[in-house]
Amino acid sequence: xxxxxxxxxxxxxxxxxxxxxxxxxxxxxxxxxxxxxxxxxxxxxxxxxxxxxxxxxxxxxxxxxxxxxxxxxxxxxxxxxxxxxxxxxxxxxxxxxxxxxxxxxxxxxxxxxxxxxxxxxxxxxxxxxxxxxxxxxxxxxxxxxxxxxxxxxxxxxxxxxxxxxxxxxxxxxxxxxxxxxxxxxxxxxxxxxxxxxxxxxxxxxxxxxxxxxxxxxxxxxxxxxxxxxxxxxxxxxxxxxxxxxxxxxxxxxxxxxxxxxxxxxxxxxxxxxxxxxxxxxxxxxxxxxxxxxxxxxxxxxxxxxxxxxxxxxxxxxxxxxxxxxxxxxxxxxxxxxxxxxxxxxxxxxxxxxxxxxxxxxxxxxx
Length: 366
Fold this sequence. Notes:
Blueprint: H1 6-16, H2 29-35, E1 38-50, E2 53-65, E3 71-75, E4 91-98, E5 106-108, H3 109-112, E6 115-121, E7 124-129, E8 149-152, H4 153-159, E9 172-175, E10 180-181, H5 186-193, E11 200-203, H6 211-223, E12 227-234, E13 239-246, E14 251-257, E15 269-275, E16 277-280, E17 288-291, E18 297-301, E19 304-308, E20 313-314, E21 318-322, E22 328-333, E23 352-357, E24 360-365
Parallel strand pairs: 3-5, 9-23, 11-12
Antiparallel strand pairs: 1-2, 1-4, 1-19, 2-3, 4-5, 4-6, 6-7, 7-8, 9-20, 10-19, 12-13, 13-14, 14-15, 15-18, 16-17, 21-22, 22-24, 23-24
């Protein structure tokens, strides 16, 4: 069948509009198929953010073109100016082209645009497109109604000239643990710089002067003797600490931010500025200030964050209550062989992706 069939025209639209409301990247399915030396279906089992770049690792379910191991990592940088729409635990078809690097060997074709989300509808894998200007390719429905268009995976693979695939495994659930981070801690940076061995005047808020701490700092500045003092403060959505350090001659302000992106998102930062001097202003906030600060020096930053799925387990081990939103469940994990009167997901699917909520799991259908 020609690649210009209505089916493939639909898939082209899904391919080149991966982000809702974004400017569509150039390219179509035929171009992706020409560029891609590998076409693979798999589940996203980990996401590695290295600064602005994003690397995905897939647990491979089917290699539709080329030869690959069971697990592959590739550069999934989204089109310029856009954010990735691919989530941890999602199943996708990726059109991959070689890179000039040894690691990773592949990247998404078409400048990061060549990926299709795949869902499991009972026993069948289908493409799902929820919004966009391609609704005219779907069955007629009232204007403005939320729609989902589905194209069976088997038909897509056949029309695109790719290797056929029949899903056979029992549906699974995976739990998303907290992201893995590079260590970045103020106390470690103080230790590395030798500041931890100085006279520790203590910890006091920047708004309030604690008499013993104030006296320690005042006497150290006057005698030009080494000292260290910490001044914590609460940010809008993170915890901040300034540490003022003096070896008696030189002065530094070392600052810690527990989350530069807001919330517990594995993005801590420690930086410092050298000061011409440290000045006490007891009636001001902060009461200790860095005079004529020098250039910004980054000491550590959690610029790399890795999100990974836990091991896959059969959905038949789950006992769930509906959360109140379609496709969302609160679940318990049953001991092997146990049965429950609550809802147990169907063995044929869909898969569940879960996170911990108190002692239960909060799960969504994939």
